[in-house]
Amino acid sequence: MKETNRAISPIGNKLCMLSDAKEEIQQQVALFKDYLADGHIDAALKTFADAYPMIISLYYSFEKAQKSKDSDWMKTQVDLLVRPLSNLFSEDSFSTEQKELLYQSLKLTFNRDLISIQDIWSIASAAYLFINLCIDLEKDIEMNELMDELHDIDLQIGPANLIASIYYLMAKVRTHEEATRFAKENLHRDRHLAINVSRSLMSDNGEQYVETVREFLLPTLQDDYPGDEEKFQVMEAVTSLLEIDKTNAAVLRNFLIRMFKEHCELMGRRQYQLIKDNSTTEEWEDLFPKLEKWAIAFEKKNKVNLVKELYAVYNK
After folding, report:
1. Is the distance from CB of 276 to CB of 247 less than 8 angstroms?
2. 267 vs 232: CA distance, rounded Å
């Protein structure tokens, strides 16, 4: 007897043929799109509530089994359902009752029993819509419970983890004070949140938030950052603060110099400029051998004439 391609759906533990499941999902997605096209939002949300549990469950099942072709197909179905709903949400087209229904459906995206991977970038549209709904519906208690439940996963939604993603979205739709308070209350959950918040504030009219950035950033300068990306991010945050705030210039400069001595390969042109502008002659001479090595590599990579500039400064 020929073996068929089968998948077990976690919904009800029913054994189903994958081809049958795909056919059913395609029918539901098509029906969903028809309802939206005709302006029948309630019917579309009902169809979404019927279709999404199977789709997200199979997506996580295939990711766990490393069946990329099948998980990619499920990811596409997630996008077909979620993206038009995200557009409607951004246009404020939902009633509170409709948002609640959508919130209940999308909760499965973060179901601890289903999640089988650490990075859910491929279904970020669903993750972001769910977080936006939590913020809009003021489900702060539920968000805290979710962060507690997933604390051991450090779930990544593309470039940021769950906690940082909540902060970024909260900063967009709530007040600066509320977003900052959320960040302060959750520093214990994410040791890198202070860096994420600092960089975010510095990129958004940083001079306005200098005091807040100091409060978040300065206590982290003695921390250990294990990965190159983390080291680079904290160097960028310190650089941005030093460019506009001279109150703690010595502390920030000393941090950059220490990081350069230990990790010169991670330094960029901005860090070099600040070290050059804020170093004593003695410090500059002490750093010069490493600076020379860094400048040669940087010049080769970026096609800029930095070595000549470095020698000119050194020989003054």
Report:
1. no
2. 7
Beta-carbon count within 10 A of 257 CB: 18
1 SS3 class: coil
The two structure tokens encoding residue 88 = 């409607």
41-86 confidence digits (pLDDT tens): 999 999 999 999 999 999 999 999 999 999 999 999 999 999 999 9
Q: What count of Cα atoms within 13 Å lies in the side-chain half-sphere of residue 275?
A: 28
Exposure of 102 in the CB half-sphere (CA atoms within 13 A): 31
Whether residue 12 contacts residue 67, with contact meaning beta carbons closer than 8 Å, is answered with no
DSSP assignments along 208-270, one per residue: GGHHHHHHHHGGGTTS---SHHHHHHHHHHHHHHHHH--TTHHHHHHHHHHHHHHHGGG--HH
The torsion defined by the Cα of 112, 114, 115 and 121, in degrees rounded to 10, comes to -120
Helices 281-302 and 269-278 cross at an angle (nearest 10°) of 160
DSSP state of 163: H
Write out the two tokens for 241: 């603060």
The 3-state DSSP composition of the chain as helix, strand, coil percent (nearest 5) reads 75, 5, 20
Q: Which of 15, 1, 87, 75 is nearest to 44 (CA)?
A: 87
Tokens 């950033």 -> residue: 217
Residues 6+ apart with CB under 8 A from 308: none
Residues across the chain:
316
Q: In sequence order, what are the residues at sequence separation of 6 or more whose Cβ sits closer than 8 angstroms to the Cβ of residue 46?
A: 101
Segment 156-181, tens digit of pLDDT: 998 899 999 999 999 999 998 999 99
pTM flag (> 0.90): no
